[in-house]
Amino acid sequence: MSLYVRGDRGFKAKGVDVVACTAVNDAFVLGAWGKSSNVGDTVTMLADGNGDYVRALGLTLDGRGFGMGERGQRFALVVKDGVAVQVLIEAPGKFEVSSAEHVLSVL
Description:
Blueprint: E1 20-23, H1 27-36, E2 44-47, H2 52-57, E3 60-62, E4 70-72, E5 75-80, E6 83-89, H3 100-106
Parallel strand pairs: 1-2
Antiparallel strand pairs: 3-4, 5-6
């Protein structure tokens, strides 16, 4: 998951309460990533250390060939009242449908 959400970008105007970023990594790495990206309280950083979340979603990626183990595919979820109403899954090597701009366009 990439972290290219800078500022609100119009999410609040569209009724979004929380923008979160998750990655198959530990809380310390996610915390450092959020800090170095200056997300402040704009993005909630959620560690998926064992990959349990992406595995439950069926969105794992085998990165063993690159020495990275099991990772998560790039995706964006739009969740309303606890139900995923949009599941936007990137093609390998792409960053299009999970971008902040695209997610805003489908809200």
